[in-house]
From TrEMBL:
Phylogenetic lineage: Eukaryota, Fungi, Dikarya, Basidiomycota, Agaricomycotina
PANTHER family to which the protein is assigned, alphabetical: 5'-3' EXORIBONUCLEASE 1 (PTHR12341:SF7), 5'->3' EXORIBONUCLEASE (PTHR12341)
Annotated protein name in UniProt: Uncharacterized protein
GO biological process, one term: nuclear-transcribed mRNA catabolic process
Disordered: annotated span: 532-723
Cellular component annotations (GO), alphabetically ordered: nucleus
Compositional bias of kind Low complexity: 550-570, 630-651
Domain 5'-3' exoribonuclease 1 D1, residue spans: 17-207
InterPro entries: 5_3_exoribonuclease (IPR027073), Rib_uL2_dom2 (IPR014722), SH3_12 (IPR041385), XRN1_D1 (IPR040992), XRN1_D1_sf (IPR047007), XRN1_D2_D3 (IPR041106), XRN1_SH3_sf (IPR047008)
UniProt-listed Gene3D superfamilies: 2.170.260.40, 2.30.30.30, 2.30.30.750
GO molecular function, one term: 5'-3' RNA exonuclease activity
Domain Exoribonuclease Xrn1 D2/D3, chain residue ranges per copy: 211-435
Species this protein is from: Sistotremastrum suecicum HHB10207 ss-3
Length: 723
């Protein structure tokens, strides 16, 4: 071991600071936030910023944004910004594309008009859209002010922005930016958007199509997308400036194999499903009885052990169902013919259990209450043994929001795949050379994530792995046996090291869960490339988002698109279904005309409504006669919010507690009495109940904490008619 000696400066000296040429402020590299990307001013003052569920009592550094678009017409802003890129979430900038501009009257969008082309059209808001616009603009202003201490000023124009999702590869090999859809559209105040940055993010730079010899070098592994050999593995043999030559290697029997696998899935019987109330009528039970027996129904034996005598085909709390037996629809649980027949057999075999299903209460049912014979525990064991013979304990619970093939079908598919594999030998491989094909007729494994977007799948589809990353080997083939919202479950022809059993639904090392863009659908080809450029098949445009299970039928108000599983009710004769509002319900109170939250944006509580002094004494006497003291109630003293100053901007009060004739600031020492009493004793002020000063009427009986002594009235308390 040799000692390490620290290097010496040898006459040099250290320089404290950044290196020369460092990018700072608005010139910072992509990913580094900076406040200087927008013009602003800063001031220290009391603003009651709320970050950790409570208002700040000390001073905060508050930023005031200078609106560079102030005074401009909304139409001019729309013509300038629509279809242009912008950056939102200042100062942590994220790129997006402006698709619309709106104010409190109109929404400006780019619309294609026949004979004119694309032009910006202003559409007036409806009543619901107007309320929604006001809600969003006020929410943005409040969030910036209360959460971040940024005063945006009045928000008069909103930008509708679709965030950048990433890059997508076009048919000619170029990389272009891909933006989110309408469902992920966001609103941003025009003064909070950044039109451009000095440093671009190199990860999202658009690129032109590279030459064929660079993108597809000789010997590259690709997949052919032609009509007659769709999805066949190939190898590039030669390239020119405009076309490629590839060598295909395939088994002639592969197309027939796909059809045989599809036939096995099609033989699956379609079960009819019945709502729970119809099942109750079929069995002569109540809805409660059906709910109990189809879930877990525990029975307590004499030795204190719990035995589940329910069928366990629905799991409400876990959001799970049993394949081919139960599912949850829009109006509740539904049960198949197989489940109904099982319930009928169960009731005929053990009618005693069905007689106690309607008992209510939290107490667990005892075996002696169900079987009134000499040995009820033996009867419970007989029930458990009978359920095992019916295969109840082997049921497959799966998520409500997924669809799967039953285990017996998966077993048949595996056996068929094994027979295919046994019949294939290297001598059966056929090779063919295809020349003069365009670049869009082949799929490179690295391009799959870009090109296979929005591909659709169904249960039983034959797929081939086309990505060279992940645990599944390249060119492996399998069958889709399960569909989830963002992935699918596949049982593969061959076992591999990272494979699984998919929770016991397939053989060892044969199953895996993969994404939709990692496989090519061979049963339903959707990216067939024609040799004629004018006959190219258009790739699917709608994203594939399978969703199963219950869908709430109530749509959000304000014309917003359904989200989180919401979908509209089916139309009747082409007319959409609308939910009528209650005409007797009073409309919600209108907010201030200037779009503010009545002081909430600035951290202040709304001003109390004026109190009629003629009713104050009447209410105080009423509360005192009801054993409630008027000055001992449950309110709060408000902790002395500073009064609104009409000369301040956005309610910001820089020196709200400054003494007259003093040049120094001081924090608030004594709470301001705003007449809302729960809190400690306030000098020269009464502790009001839920009313307002003076002498807080409407006190609710016995209040909390110590306070001023109760009011004492001398003489006889009388309330005249004019009081």
């Amino acid at each position: 071991m040799e000692p390490f000696n620290l290097p010496t400066l040898d006459g040099l000296h250290l320089i404290a600071g950044l290196c020369e040429g460092a990018f700072l402020g608005a010139d910072s590299l992509a990913g580094f936030p900076s406040l200087k990307t927008l013009p602003y001013t800063a001031q220290l003052g009391y603003h009651h910023v709320n970050v950790f569920q409570s208002d700040s009592r000390n001073k905060s550094m508050v930023l005031h944004i200078n609106n560079v678009h102030e005074g401009r017409k909304t139409s001019d802003i729309a013509n300038e910004l629509i279809s242009k890129r912008t950056f939102l979430d200042w100062p942590f900038l994220q790129e997006g594309k402006v698709v619309a501009v709106s104010d409190h009257l109109f929404k400006h969008e780019l619309i294609k008009i026949a004979g004119v082309g694309e032009t910006v059209v202003a559409t007036p808001h409806g009543s619901d859209a107007l309320r929604e616009w006001q809600r969003k603009s006020q929410g943005i202003e409040e969030r910036y002010s209360k959460k971040t201490g940024v005063i945006t000023g009045p928000i008069e124009v909103l930008l509708h922005i679709r965030p950048l999702k990433g890059l997508k590869r076009t048919e000619d090999g170029a990389l272009i930016k891909d933006y989110e859809g309408k469902d992920k559209e966001r609103e941003q105040a025009v003064q909070m958007s950044v039109s451009g940055v000095s440093s671009e993010d190199p990860r999202y730079l658009e690129k032109d199509a590279p030459p064929l010899h660079e993108d597809f070098p000789k010997g590259s592994k690709v997949f052919f997308l032609g009509d007659h050999a769709y999805g066949v593995a190939a190898q590039v043999s030669d390239t020119t400036d405009t076309s490629l030559s590839v060598v295909l290697a395939f088994f002639p029997s592969e197309r027939a194999e796909t059809q045989k696998l599809t036939d096995v899935v099609l033989q699956r019987k379609d079960n009819r499903y019945h709502p729970a109330y119809q099942v109750a009528q079929m069995l002569g039970l109540t809805g409660l009885g059906v709910s109990k027996i189809t879930s877990s129904f525990m029975v307590l034996t004499a030795d204190g052990s719990k035995v589940n005598v329910g069928l366990s085909i629905k799991f409400e709390a876990k959001s799970m169902k049993v394949l081919d037996y139960s599912r949850r629809g829009e109006r509740g649980w539904e049960f198949s013919d197989k489940a109904v027949q099982l319930l009928k057999d169960y009731k005929a075999k053990f009618p005693q259990i069905f007689k106690v299903l309607d008992q209510r209460g939290d107490a667990m049912t005892r075996a002696a209450d169900v079987f009134r014979d000499s040995n009820p525990d033996a009867s419970v064991k007989a029930v458990k043994a009978w359920l095992n013979t019916q295969g109840v304990r082997d049921f497959e619970p799966v998520s409500l929001f997924s669809d799967h093939l039953p285990k017996e079908i998966v077993t048949q598919l595996e056996q068929l795949e094994d027979s295919f594999r046994a019949s294939k030998t290297p001598a059966n491989i056929k090779k063919a050379i295809v020349k003069g094909i365009p670049r869009q007729a082949v799929l490179k494994p690295a391009h799959a994530v870009y090109r296979l977007q929005n591909q659709r799948f169904e249960l039983g589809d034959r797929v081939i792995m086309v990505q060279d990353t992940g645990g599944v080997p390249l060119t492996a083939k399998g069958v889709v046996i399960g569909l989830n919202s963002n992935s699918m479950e596949v049982v593969w022809d061959n076992a591999f090291l990272s494979g699984s059993t998919l929770s016991g639904r397939c053989s060892d090392y044969r199953g895996s869960t993969v994404t939709f863009n990692s496989c090519l659908n061979l049963t339903n080809p959707q990216f067939i490339a024609s040799m004629n450029p004018q006959r190219q098949q258009q790739p699917p445009a709608e994203p594939f988002k399978p969703r199963f299970g219950p869908h709430p039928v109530v749509t959000p108000r304000g014309g917003r698109p359904p989200q989180g599983g919401f979908r509209p009710a089916p139309s009747v004769n082409g007319v959409p279904v609308h939910i009528l509002a209650n005409p007797n319900r009073a409309p919600p109170p209108a907010r201030n005309a200037n779009g503010s939250y009545g002081g909430v944006v600035s951290g202040n509580k709304p001003e109390p409504e004026p109190v009629d002094p003629s009713t104050s004494r009447t209410n105080a006497l009423r509360d005192s006669l009801n054993e409630g003291f008027p000055n001992r109630g449950r309110g709060t003293n408000g902790r002395g919010r500073p009064p609104q100053n009409p000369n301040t901007r956005g309610g910001f009060v820089p020196n709200a507690h400054r003494r007259e004739g003093s040049n120094t600031d001081r924090p608030p020492q004594v709470p301001v009495n705003n007449g809302r009493g729960r809190g400690n004793f306030m000098p020269n002020g009464d502790r009001g109940g839920r009313g307002f000063a003076p002498r807080g009427f409407r006190g609710r009986g016995r209040g909390r904490g110590a306070g001023a002594p109760p009011a004492i009235y001398s003489g006889t308390a009388t309330i005249s008619a004019d009081t």
